Amino acid sequence: MQLGADHVQVRVPxxxxxxGPGFDALGLALALHDDLDVRALASDEVVVEVEGEGAGExxxxxxxxxxxxxxxxxxxxxxxxxxxxxxxxxxxxxGRGLGSSAAAVVAGVAAARALVADPSVLxxxxxxxxxxxxxxxxxxxxxxxxGGATVAWGAGGRGARAARLDVHPDLRATVLVPSSRLATxxxxxxxxxxxxxADAAFNAGRAALLVEALTRRPDLLLDATDDRLHQAYRAxxxxxxxxxxxxxxxxxxxxTVSGAGPTVLVLSAAADLDRVERAADxxxxxxxxxxxxxxxxxxxxxxxxRH
Length: 307
Ligand SMILES: Nc1ncnc2c1ncn2[C@@H]1O[C@H](COP(=O)(O)OP(=O)(O)OP(=O)(O)O)[C@@H](O)[C@H]1O
Ligand SMILES: N[C@@H](CCO)C(=O)O
Hints:
This protein has 307 residues and is an alpha+beta fold. Helix content is 34%, strand content 26%.
């Protein structure tokens, strides 16, 4: 397989995983994007320039996450690894539970798909499978690939799979992003090996209800986002986020920890945005530790174009 282009541009969305009860399964794409400009070089040199989130922190060589994913995808497609000039404009904050690492991996794989002569060898299933294998979290990778809301699952030897849901046009997302970071590995390390059967049954019912709430009945979001499998267990490693979720829920708002935290996500109907804004203002307004943003739902997923 040869390359069919030497210059591509990629736009990839942030994602919020779990959405309460859908631990490791449900995710939502948010219109907060990283933009990448990727050039294949004739030499084997790798140059990485980063502006915005992660600048001065992430590697600037072939160990950069986007480059690693891009090279792995070229390998999978049977195309030669090339040198690269990668320029990233990053807007997704790192280590906050907004899927920055999944976005980086999905962007790298999508860039490879746009670079190779026959993109059909890297269809959405292959992109999702490879991205999940590299990053480990199909619940972030799936909405980053497909847009909208997704249900992801591991299909044994067939790798990660995902189904896309068309979210209700009235669904709105508000994120409360703290200045502090939390590594996903740390947030996973505090989860118990076993949970009570009643809690597993509770979450199964709420996750099923959440599909209905996301797609047809936003009025059900408060009940549908309740969870007993992960958030309370993680309270000690993100106490402020856990308290904020509880406070927002006591205002009748469908708040959850976003992914592995510590960002807090509030889902609502458009008509309830004023209520969300007032509650956010009351709880974190004026605090230098929290930024409140209201990204649209991203319905496209990653987009990669030949230049
Ligand atoms: N755009 C990027 N370019 C290079 N490396 C990145 C990029 N985004 C994330 N990373 C790497 O991934 C790390 C963050 O991954 P982590 O899984 O802890 O958090 P997250 O992906 O932001 O949140 P979550 O997975 O909970 O949604 C960063 O510290 C950095 O090493
Ligand atoms: N479902 C994963 C998401 C990580 O981004 C977790 O909560 O650990």
